[in-house]
From TrEMBL:
It comes from Nitrospira tepida. Residues 5-119 form the Response regulatory domain. Keywords: ATP-binding, Nucleotide-binding, Phosphoprotein, Transcription, Transcription regulation, Two-component regulatory system. One of its GO terms (molecular function) is sequence-specific DNA binding. SMART domains: AAA (SM00382), REC (SM00448). It comes from the Bacteria. This is DNA-binding transcriptional activator/ornithine decarboxylase inhibitor AtoC.
Length: 479
């Protein structure tokens, strides 16, 4: 791995030289500049991991250089050098996004320590990013993301069945990715350059659905002013995707059975027999077997459709996929709207892991899309960006209504199969959860919550700050 690259900007020659020597001696790749403008030119020319800059410089100053580092295309983190007694400017620099600051006069060891810490954080971030990319590649097939065991089996099946002409029945709750799977099968099949036709069987009444599927002759029924080809004909040599197949009437079921058995049919109101070569993929949220026993679905048709069944598990049964999916959508969305979002905050991640997602991946997608729209550039997504409720209890507001996301997040328990965390981590997690549930109980009243918890208001404020619970920006006076 290449050494950490550093840009050092200081106008005092002696300081600059001693820092340069000290940093080079430990093996960093360092370039130095004597003025802000010189530093800016170097920053714009190359990619540095770290900028170490004096705040006060002739020309463009340290804060100006820091701003350049914060541009989305840059990955440079800044360490600011401040004059003794100028705490306020140091605070401003931190607010503007500096990683840390160091006050003059300082020992070289102090500087080296800060640099070493930052370079470790950066290495970890890079590692995470690489890992994420690798995971995405391995656990992503045609946009279907999942590392859960059942999802991996689904992906294997999708790959295998794509190469055949077999009829596929995709079953799963709303938003679990049935259409995505149908798309992937077609686009990975030898028919990929031919038509991919979709019909939503629930959207049309029986007679219209029949005409839609098989076409009609001129005058077949009132309003049939000219001959029209049906979806089966349009899908010739390609794939036909019949969505919500559980909704079709018994009459249409008979016709469908015939096409599947004989590969031929007549248009509504016509005599000509039409032969087609169509690969069929069907999807349903229903338990078709149950529909069969209750007499609503023909058994013979069921067996014809259920040649290769693909069952998509609901998201609540594959929680290990939640964060990967969230990152996947976050990457796509922020790229789409050109907004550099830093990622999910630990609190947001925790809530996502707890939530049951009745709307499955579609609901998660909508949540992230909203968060990207509401979230602030270069900052992490917070729980309240996800739910979008202005009166979210997390914000300390009085919720007029609590959305399912929050109430579950506040009271729910994560199933933890691995008992691998340290006592300190477990204690912190418990503290955080408990504070959240007390805040929910007091409907955001900090005074009451502090009383119940046996803390001062300042004490509660400090804990909340530590655990990323938003309860107001101003620190309360000691009481
Ligand atoms: N495993 C997955 N990886 C990535 N995106 C997914 C996954 N599953 C679903 N999605 C996304 O979630 C959204 C909903 O998926 P899709 O439309 O395929 O669901 P569905 O099962 O057909 O839902 P419905 O029954 O409501 O029609 C889509 O935008 C899809 O891209
Ligand atoms: Mg669908």
């Amino acid at each position: 791995m290449s050494p950490t690259s550093i840009l050092l900007v200081d106008d005092e020659p002696l300081m600059r030289l001693s820092m340069l020597d000290a940093l080079k001696a430990v093996g960093y790749d360092v370039q130095a500049a004597a003025t802000g403008n010189e530093g800016k030119d170097l920053l714009l020319k190359g990619q540095f991991d770290i900028l170490i800059t004096d705040l006060q410089l002739p020309g463009i100053d340290g804060l100006g250089l820091l701003q350049l580092c914060k541009e989305p295309s840059r990955r440079t983190e800044a360490i600011m050098i401040t004059a003794h007694g100028s705490v306020e400017t140091a605070v401003n620099a931190m607010k503007a996004g500096a990683y840390d600051y160091i006050t003059k006069p300082f020992q070289m060891d102090e500087l080296l320590l800060v640099v070493e810490r930052l370079s470790k954080v950066q290495a970890l971030k890079r590692e995470n990013q690489q890992l994420r990319q690798q995971l995405e590649g391995k656990f992503n097939f045609q946009g279907i993301v999942g590392r859960n065991e059942r999802m991996r089996a689904v992906l294997e099946k999708v790959k295998l069945v794509a190469g055949t002409d077999s009829t596929v029945l995709v079953v799963g709750e709303s938003g679990t990715g049935k259409e995505l799977v149908a798309n992937a099968i077609h686009h990975h099949s030898p028919r990929k350059d031919q038509a991919f036709i979709k019909v939503s069987c629930a959207a049309l009444p029986e007679t219209l659905l029949e005409a839609e599927l098989f076409g009609h002759e001129k005058g077949a029924f009132t309003g049939a002013l000219r001959q029209r080809k049906g979806r089966f004909e349009l899908a010739h040599r390609g794939t036909l995707f019949l969505d919500e197949i559980g909704e079709i009437s018994l009459v249409v079921q008979v016709k469908l059975l015939r096409v599947l058995q004989e590969r031929q049919f007549e248009r509504v109101g016509g005599n000509e027999t039409i032969e087609v070569d169509v690969r069929l993929i069907c999807a349903t949220q229903k338990d078709l077997k149950k529909e069969v026993t209750q007499g609503r679905f023909r058994e013979d048709l069921y067996y014809r459709l259920n040649v290769v069944p693909i069952m998509l598990p609901p998201l609540r049964e594959r929680r290990e996929d939640v964060l990967m999916l969230a990152e996947h959508v976050l990457g796509n969305r922020s790229e789409h709207v050109k907004k550099a979002i830093k990622g999910l905050s630990p609190a947001a991640e925790e809530l996502l892991l707890r939530y049951s997602f009745p709307g499955n991946v579609r609901e998660l997608e909508n949540m992230i899309e909203r968060a990207v729209a509401l979230g602030r550039e270069r900052e992490e997504i917070q729980p309240w960006d996800l739910c979008g409720y202005a009166t979210c209890p997390f914000l300390g507001g009085m919720p007029q209504e609590t959305c399912g996301f929050c109430s579950e997040g506040l009271t729910g328990r994560i199933e933890r199969k691995d008992a691998s965390e340290s006592l300190a981590t477990a204690r912190e997690r418990f503290e955080r959860e408990y504070i959240l549930s007390v805040l929910a109980q007091t409907e955001g009243s900090k005074t009451m919550a502090a009383k119940i918890l046996g803390l001062s208001r300042k004490g509660l404020w400090e804990k909340c700050k530590r655990y990323g619970i938003a309860i107001g920006a101003t620190e309360p006076e000691e009481d």
